[in-house]
Amino acid sequence: MIKKLLLATHNEGKIEELKEMLAPWGVEVLSAQDMELPDVEETGETFAENAAMKAETLAEYTGLPCLADDSGLCVKALGGKPGVYSARYAPDSDARIGKLVAELQSMNAEDWSAYFACVLALKIPGEKVRFFEGKVDGMIIPERRGNKGFGFDPVFVPDGWNKTFAEVEGNEKAAVSHRGKALRCFIEEMFGAK
After folding, report:
1. Per-residue pLDDT tens for 116-166?
2. Is there a contact between 117 and 88 (Cβ–Cβ < 8 Å)?
3. Contact between 113 and 136 (Cβ < 8 Å)
4. In a 3-state reduction of DSSP, which class is residue 121?
5. Is 84 left (phi over 0), alpha (psi -120 to 50) or beta?
6. Is the distance from CB of 183 to CB of 132 less than 8 angstroms?
7. What are phi and psi of 44, to 5 degrees?
8. Per-state percent for the chain, helix, strand, coil, to nearest 5
9. How far apart are CA 140 and CA 150, in angstroms?
C-alpha cells in the first residue's frame, strides 16, 4: 500500500485535481512543486512515453513512488493536434485557447469534435512502470465559458453535457474527465476500490 506519493507536476490545476481525488485513501501527496524539483523535459511522441519519462526520472531522483500524468486535447479537424504538445501549443492557457479556436475558424472546420486523453504512469522504485488511461469525448466551442478548471476547459463540452469543464465543480468534472477515469483505474488497482 502506498503511503506517500509524489506527483510529477508543477501544474497547480493537476495537483489540486489529483490531491482531491486521492484524499479519501490517506495517502500523503507531494508534488514536484512542493519539493522544488526540476521539470522533466517531455521528449516522447506519446502520452505514455512522456508520463513514463517523468515518473521514472523523479522516482529515481527522490526514492519515492511517483505518479506522472501526460494528457492533452486531440482535435479531429487538426489531425489529433495539439495532442502531446497541448501544454506547448502556445505560451499560456489563454493563448492556447485563442490559437485553437482561430485555427478551427480559419480552416472553416465543420467538425469541432475532440477528446481529452490522459495517461498516468506509476513508478515505484524497484518495480516496472504501470500505466492507467482515461479518455473523454466532446466538442470544442468557439466562445469561452466558465472560470473553473484550467487549460482548454473553457472551450470543451463533453458529450452529453451542455456545460464546459470550466463551468462545473472539480468533483463533477472528475466523474467524467480523462484524468478522473485514469485516476479511478489507479485507485482500483492500488487500493482495491472503485
Report:
1. 999 999 999 999 999 999 999 999 999 999 999 889 999 999 999 999 999
2. no
3. no
4. strand
5. alpha
6. yes
7. -75, 165
8. 40, 25, 35
9. 15
Closest CA to 177 of 187, 166, 188: 166
For the chain, the residue count is 194
SS3 67: strand
Instruction: Exactly one of 34, 39, 69, 70 is catalytic; name it.
Output: 70
CB atoms within 10 A of CB 4: 11
Query: Euclidean distance between the first and final Cα of the chain, in Å?
Result: 16
Give me the residues paired with residue 31 across strands.
7
pTM of the predicted model over 0.90: yes
Distance CA 25, CA 120 (A): 18
**Burial code of 53-62, b = ≥16 C-beta within 10 A, e = fewer?**
bbbbbbbebb
CA distances from 112 to 75, 126, 155 (A): 7, 44, 11
Cell of 155: 472551450
- 94 a catalytic residue: no
Cell of 134: 482515461
Q: Quote the cell numbers at residue 183.
A: 485516476
Query: In a 3-state reduction of DSSP, which class is residue 2?
Result: coil
Condensed to tens digits (0 to 9), the pLDDT of residues 68-116 reads: 999 999 999 999 999 999 999 999 999 999 999 999 999 999 999 999 9
C-alpha dist (Å) from residue 154 to 98, 143, 160, 186 = 11, 8, 16, 27
